[in-house]
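Milestone 3.1: sequence recovery, worked example.
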């Protein structure tokens, strides 16, 4: 399975540790993982997209990325601080 791990921060100084742990876990299961910084993979090139949400003030940007990710992959997973604090925004 091809998985895209997406950091939604515009100019990251480092990768979120949770995203790296997910990548290591999925690779141990035999999946292929690739990390993207504030971009999404081309349509139909990955099976799943996993997005991390770090800051709540970035919500409009992240929600736009989630909507776009839904058009690019079969399954989309969203996690992180924003998704935990405001799950109602992401459940739609």
């Amino acid at each position: 399975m091809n998985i895209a791990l997406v950091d939604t921060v515009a100019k990251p100084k480092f990768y979120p540790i949770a995203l790296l742990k997910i990548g290591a876990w999925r690779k141990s299961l035999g999946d292929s993982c690739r990390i993207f910084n504030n971009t999404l993979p081309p349509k139909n090139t990955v099976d799943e997209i996993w997005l991390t949400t770090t800051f709540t003030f970035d919500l409009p940007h992240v929600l736009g990325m989630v909507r776009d990710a839904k058009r690019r992959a079969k399954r989309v997973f969203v996690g992180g601080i924003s998704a935990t604090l405001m799950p109602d925004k992401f459940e739609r």
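The chain has a mean pLDDT of 90. The first helix runs from residue 17 to 28.
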